[in-house]
Amino acid sequence: MLTSFILHSAISFLIALSLRLTLLLGLATVLVIALRRRSAALRHQVWATAVLASLLLPSLILFLPAWHSSVLFTAANALASSRAVTPGAALSASPTMLVNATASSVVGNRLALAVLLLWALGFLAMVARLLFGLVRLALLSAHAEPLFDDVWMREVLNISNSLKISRAVRLLESRNPASMPLTYGLFRPAILLPAGAAQWPAERRRIVLSHELAHIARNDWFLQLCAEFARALYWFHPLVWLAASQLRHESERACDDAVLNHGVSPSAYAGQLLDLARTLKNPGRAWSTALAIARPTNLERRFAAMLNPSLNRSHLSARTKFLIPCLALALLLPLAALRSTAQSLSGKITGTITDPSGAGVANATVIMHNHEAKTIDMTTSDRDGNYLFKGLPAGNYEVQVVKPGFEVYHVNQVSLDPGRDFIANFALQVGSLSERVTVLPEGSEKPVITEKTNGKPSRAAIGGTIQAAKLVNKIQPIYPESAKSAGLQGIVILHAVIGIDGTVESLRVVNSQIDPALAKSAVEAVSHWRYTPTLLNGEPIEVDTTIQVSYSLQP
User: Fold this and answer.
1) Mean pLDDT calculated for residue range 257-263
2) Quick check: 403 and 366 in contact, CB under 8 A?
3) Per-residue pLDDT for 187 more than 80?
């Protein structure tokens, strides 16, 4: 049952996460479309914020306090009403779940497990794809030689200062003369150049370094890694693939704008990119984690953009960089905390409470205690022993079934899954009797006190067809002289079975450490007691009884 709850809770979490993710990325898409005439840097900031928010969303859903919307609550109630069925219909339409069952539905559990395994396989495949790209980059870096050419280093220093890059940037020269320039790394960023790049003309050197250093200044490699991990986590969601693709596209556009803003003419820049794309080998693979200057997938659109003089090429101000994450967080927090009642409620909880003969027990109280939510819900059974809860918040519950004359039925944990009907049948056992007798020495000023305690009341109608036993012949125990002379006193606890003829059977002393004289006195008296038999549906049955005989020297 716990496994069933975990499986269905995981599925419910994935569904709730997907709905919130759809809203989040849908809003980002609409916003980017509205900003189509603004700069690529601004659109990139929107996509980057949306990707980071998607990675933060699962943690916020799990740890933020729930916020229940009254609008969603009303809608959930309407939905629940439209699906309402009679208790009998629920019994026939839902898979029967006994309290001691291990799963609510084998088919449902298998389906939930299959969905989770499918997600896990997709996640692992995407992570392996990402790791493969990182390993490939590491191998390329390991086989490259550092480039310490003074001209290149001065160019890097000048452009880094203009872009306010404080980190040291490494220049690496690949052994492959046809390798496309690549940028990667966060704390120790590197630019990987093809073999022979040291002999490039000044214009190409300036264009390539301006573009790659713009990636480093904008932390594009880290953001692209986040996008790839989001794509692994949400591989099933098309909007995540769109966000990752657009993030890379807008980062290239923004770096192109940075190059043009540094005084490079659009025609010269386009010519150099075309030449690089024609003569060098582009990674061109979707699993490549590096940022290449001339990817063929979007090169044509970049040419059209850089040759369009009317486009906005402004960079982001510090104020804009601060406001966009703040606005995203203001949206993300209530979105993550929002709980729909329809998502958190279980289905109907129904069942039948029966006595040992199989007959229904009327007016039994069913108590559902959720310790995590600190809630207690109760209902009572009808004349046929049927009970019904219309829907409780999903979670783990402690269940008690209480009826005078019966043993309390107790279950430590029952798991209610969101949106799933639950059927639990309870078979109650007849409660044991309890008698308490106080024995005083002969000649005491106060009379002998005899009191009876409950467990099952005398002549009580239980379940409509059960009649409790009644003590009709009681022999009063006598205080042993030896115990009285020795000043011994105490309580003798006896356990016995009241037979179908009302006689006391299987009588034994529970607390064997009591004085033997007191124990003998109690056993001799109680063994002669007589009861009216307990009747279940008119037939006598055996019941347990506990008898306490208290020997006291003080009245």
Assistant:
1) 86
2) no
3) yes
Q: Report CA-CA distances (Å) from 31 to 24, 43, 57, 326, 353.
A: 11, 8, 19, 15, 57
Q: pLDDT at position 81, please?
A: 39
Angle at which helices 220-233 and 238-261 pack, to 10 degrees?
170
CB distance 469 to 433 below 8 Å: yes
Residue partners of 354: CB distance under 8 A and separation at least 6: 360, 361, 385, 425, 426, 427, 428
Query: By C-alpha distance, which of 222, 237, 185, 217 is closest to 54?
Result: 237
**Structural domains in the chain plus CATH codes:** 345-427 (2.60.40.1120), 433-551 (3.30.2420.10)
CA torsion, points 474, 476, 477, 478, in degrees to nearest 10? -160
For a pLDDT cut of 70, what percent of the chain falls above it? 79
Least confident of 155-169, 438-452, 514-528: 438-452
According to DSSP, residue 105 is labeled -
Quick one: tokens of 71? 């609008």
3-state secondary structure of 81: helix
Predicted model pTM:
0.58
Q: Retrieve residue 241's tokens.
A: 């693939």
Residue type, 49: T
